[in-house]
Amino acid sequence: MNRAKIQDYIDQRTEERRGVYHAKMEDEQRFIINNHPYEIVKDDDHSFDLDKFTDRFSMILSKFDYLVGDWGYGQLRLRGFYSSDNPLYVPGRGTDTIQDYLYEQCNFGCKYFIIHNLEVNIPRHSRRRRTKSRRRRRSVGYREKRVPLKEPNLKQRHHQEVKTVERNRQRRFVIKKRGE
User: Fold this and answer.
1) What is the pLDDT of residue 147?
2) Residue 32: helix, strand or coil by DSSP?
3) Which residues contact 160 (CB under 8 A, 6 or more apart)?
4) What is the mean pLDDT of the chain?
5) What are phi and psi of 85, to 5 degrees?
């Protein structure tokens, strides 16, 4: 892919995202995006631009307590951080690592801003567990309940035998009691 084609894709994506989020400034420090309040904590060299921020914004960022936006090569990059009282808190993404992020991952001397999320939306996690095997899950309206077999352990099963049954070119194993 050449650079012109990549730039066309980027321009197309920004046009699709334009107008999805509605933002307005309440005062110099507070603004609202889709009825969700935010506050500007630090604005290095007046780098915050509400229009550019709303173009890059995504609702996945509403779960973070603080958002850091940094400018590199004319593009805005957003990164979220948790406060220590957030249940999603991870030490590597805590608010105490914001300064490390600015020193290590941002361009030297880049303009940046820090925004505080006033109403954090913590996502609900489903109770779905990951299984060790790679079985496909069906997306149906009921849940399969597995009942463990009440059989004795293998050493005590002397009264059973295993047979292989072939039907329609498929092999199946059948366990039957001896004498049936």
Assistant:
1) 72
2) strand
3) 175, 176, 177, 178
4) 82
5) -90, 0
